[in-house]
Amino acid sequence: MHTVTLIKGDGIGPDITEATLKVIEAAGVKIKWDEVRAGEGAIEEFGTPLPAEVINSLKTNGIGLKGPLTTPIGSGFRSINVALRMELDLYANLRPSKTFPGVRSRFEDIDLVVVRENTEDLYSGVEHMVGADAAESIKIITRKASERIVRFAFDYALENGRKKVTAVHKANILKLSDGLFLEVAREVAEKYPRVEFEDRIVDNMAMQLVQKPELYDVMVMPNLYGDILSDLCAGLVGGLGLVPGANIGDNAALFEPVHGSAPKYAGKNYVNPSAMIMAAVLMLKHMGEKEAAQRIEEALAAQIKEGKDLTADLGGSAGTAEMAAALAERIKVN
Ligand code: NAD
Fold it and tell me: pTM, whole model, 2 decimals?
């Protein structure tokens, strides 16, 4: 029996979490859920969006499933998601984007993985005003963080039968910071002779992904480029409602949908649970429950392809719970 930290999240979080738990149960995986509250709900109860028990639970269990959290605007709280990543040193952000046949998108056969460095770059929070009319944000790139993220990308490629890793940077202009990232990537690549390696400048990469995504496989990059290009990749497969993400460190891993808490649909049994279900698929793979993960993934793909029992964004008329119930039946029968 696995014990997993569960954060249902804000807004649509509880709806898509309930849906996902039903699907995991149908796949026969026994999980003891250690539920903790973060986000808006926690502010009411504990006076903070990130109570210590959330961090403690994740440290103890080493694994968590999380719904989206609403970041309060203008209240002085920094993003809870960023705080979680920093507190637990979840240095690798993994964002696979894969075509679901049946979902309208510009391409039919996308299978891309963005590995984004999660702890430094322009997200280090080192910012200040220089007088009243200028501001500076410092971009931090270290050998240590670059080395571990590039290693992560190569190890992921090897474990998942991937052929190529592309390092993405802007080393032609940012000669020191991105130059260091590229230098380290090249050094690490030499230790993985079975995986092809290449590098691309980020602006060119953005164009290539839109024009010839089939040329790419696993891509590894500093934080800001990863933030932007991983959303671009989500757009290539039909949008945020389908794409999961994982934040992985040496001692803990946290799995979540990529989309936010969509407050206007909260409690309406309306939104698509697929991104959260795919986050659970990533989590199950990480836990070694590969067979159950594959069954859920295949059943979801089949349901979407057949076009039955789908939510409105996928062209159907089912509610979140009804889509998940049909998926659970499909998984049980198979
Ligand atoms: P959002 O992703 O919540 O919603 C944007 C729009 O996308 C929604 O109005 C809806 O039309 C659509 N959408 C999102 N998820 C969907 C789903 N599962 N099914 C169908 N349609 C879906 O983005 P936002 O409105 O910019 O952010 C709302 C809140 O979420 C903010 O407080 C933001 O900070 C937070 N947020 C949290 C996370 C996270 O916890 N990881 C990520 C992004 C945004």
Answer: 0.94
- CA–CA separation, 166 and 186 (whole Å): 10
Phi, psi angles (nearest 5°) of residue 242: -115, -10
| Residue 101 placed within a domain | no
Q: What is the pLDDT of residues 274-306, one digit of tens each?
A: 999 999 999 999 999 999 999 999 999 999 999
Q: Mark whether 208 and 306 lie in a shared domain.
A: no
Burial profile 217-241: b = 16 or more Cβ within 10 angstroms, e = fewer:
bbbbbbbbbbbebbbbbbbbbbbbb
| Residues in the ligand 1 pocket, defined by CB under 6 Å | 68-71, 81, 240-241, 256, 259-262, 264, 271-272, 275, 313
* 165 and 131 housed in the same domain: yes
Q: In the annotation, is 203 catalytic? A: yes
Ligand 1 midpoint to CA 152 (Å): 28
Tens-place pLDDT, residues 3-58: 999 999 999 999 999 999 999 999 999 999 999 999 988 988 898 899 999 999 99
Taking the CA of residue 256 as reference, the ligand 1 atom at the shortest distance is 41
Residue located nearest, by CA, to atom 7 of ligand 1: 262
